[in-house]
Amino acid sequence: MSDRVAVMQPGPGLKGFVCPPQVPTKGERHEVDHCLSKCVHPCVAEPLIAAIYHANVRNPHKGAYLSASMIAGSNCMRKTHYERLDPAGHYELIRNVYWPFRGTIAHKVIEDRGDEAFHLTQFMQEITMRVPLVFPDRPAPIFTDDGLWTGEYDPTKPLIIELGGTCDAYSPWKLKLYDFKTMADAKARMVIEQGKIEPNWIVQMNIYRYLIANTEISEKDREEFRKHGLPDLPGTHYPAPETLRIQGIGMMEIPLTGQGYVMQRQWQQNDIPPIPVMTLEETEALIRDRAIAWFDALVLGIKPPVVEDDRSWMCKSCSFNGEVIEGERCFPKKERSADTFEGEPKEEWRKVQDAGGTYVDPAEKPKKPRKPRATKKKKEKPLDDFLG
User: Fold this and answer.
1) Where do the domains of the chain lie?
2) Cβ atoms of 323 and 333 closer than 8 Å
3) For the residues 371-385, what does the mean pLDDT come to?
4) Is 128 helix (H, G, I), strand (E, B) or coil?
5) What is the DSSP string of 186-254?
6) DSSP assignment, residue 310?
7) Of 101, 209, 265, 355, whose CB is crowded by the most CB atoms within 10 A?
8) How many DSSP H helices and E strands does the chain contain?
9) Which CATH architecture has domain 14-364?
10) Are strands 149-171 and 344-345 parallel, antiparallel or unpaired?
11) How far apart (Å, rounded) are the C-alpha atoms in residues 71 and 288?
């Protein structure tokens, strides 16, 4: 790929919002000050807009920061590329930034209460970790004092990428790691009834495990342990957790992986599968492979391709999708149906053509009519049977 620039200036991030379809000004872009003080058709309450915007601009995942969630595949690389590097800033649909905002609220409440009960739970919370990854086979980019890439490399030094992450709750004494995930009840039911654990959740938790095992125990943390009467930890680094669990936080359901769960107004117990634990060597190999692509996209300014077919649902509400929002810059359906990207062959599409077929975007395939769901009358079970 040749889409490199001599100097890549990180953009200012979220600048304002795109008016959603339900208001007369749909599709218009406005800076946040307009949304808070001048808009005559507010899409949501102005105080909520202010809170969402404030939470977003305080997010540390800016610039060249590579996070565990990125490497795990939770984000669209193309969208993040646009968000971080657009020199004019970007505009977002309010609903797209509401979900992480809602998660921030839940995490903050849990964190505050967890600190008070640390001596009982023995769980450290909101641990920020940063681990350098050294790539001896790639030269180090040369940056200005302001942290901008000059377009040149230093062949005498290796490339070093810093990977960071913040885990929700970890106990070095119980060797257990929790990740709290806010989710819609529809998603919670999929976890409970179908045992559907997203692959990127599994990867993300194993990346946290890797980061923990490569994080040194500070003297400040040891003093905190002694203060709460907890045993000191041997060695210089935190021990890798042996049990990884996701605690779902829905509106009505709170499923926990690796155990049974009974949903609201039901008697049947569903067994939720545990999170598989990868070896630290397997995790590091995965991290190193994906970190290079993210570094190229966010630091060197190389535009990445759009997401694959199986994740095309991410494009439907993307604020950069020119097929949805007029005047935007990304055309994912068109790009997925093309044979090349940035002048290079795309193997996925080439295989289809070599087989004598024609690539069809899954979004364009005619959908089969859905059969009406048969409704079964549930047999009421006495409460005494359930309790006893």
Assistant:
1) 14-364
2) yes
3) 50
4) strand
5) HHHHHHHHH----HHHHHHHHHHHHHHHT-BPPHHHHHHHHHTTPPPPPSSBPPPPSEEEEEEE-SS--
6) G
7) 209
8) 13, 12
9) Alpha-Beta Complex (3.90)
10) unpaired
11) 9
Return the bridge partners of 260, or none: 271
pLDDT band at 360 (very low <50, low <70, confident <90, very high): very low
Instruction: For Cα atoms 94, 96, 102, give the angle at the middle one, nearest 5 degrees.
Output: 90
191-223, pLDDT tens digit by residue? Answer: 999 999 999 999 999 999 999 999 999 999 999
Query: Average pLDDT in the 180-198 region?
Result: 92
Tell me the per-residue pLDDT of 230-280, one tens digit each, with 9 for 90 and over.
Answer: 999 999 999 999 999 999 999 899 999 999 999 988 888 999 999 999 999
CA distances from 75 to 21, 311, 336 (A): 24, 10, 18
In DSSP terms, 191 is beta-bridged to: none
- Three-state DSSP at 316 gives coil
Q: What is the pLDDT of residues 63-118, one digit of tens each?
A: 345 889 889 988 899 998 888 887 778 888 898 889 888 888 888 888 877 777 88
Question: Taken in order 38, 40, 43, 44, is the CA torsion positive or negative?
Answer: positive
Query: Are the C-beta atoms of 231 and 217 separated by less than 8 Å?
Result: no
For residue 64, what are the CA distances in angstroms to 151, 160, 194, 212?
15, 12, 37, 21
Over its C-alpha atoms, the chain yields an Rg (Å, rounded) of 24
The per-residue pLDDT for range 75-86, each reduced to its tens digit, is 899 998 888 887
Maximum C-alpha span of the chain: 75
Hey, how many other C-beta atoms are within 10 angstroms of the C-beta on 372? 6
Which residues contact residue 27 at a Cβ distance below 8 angstroms, ignoring those fewer than 6 apart? Answer: 18, 19, 325, 326, 327
Is residue 290 left, alpha or beta, with left meaning phi > 0 and alpha meaning psi from -120 to 50?
alpha
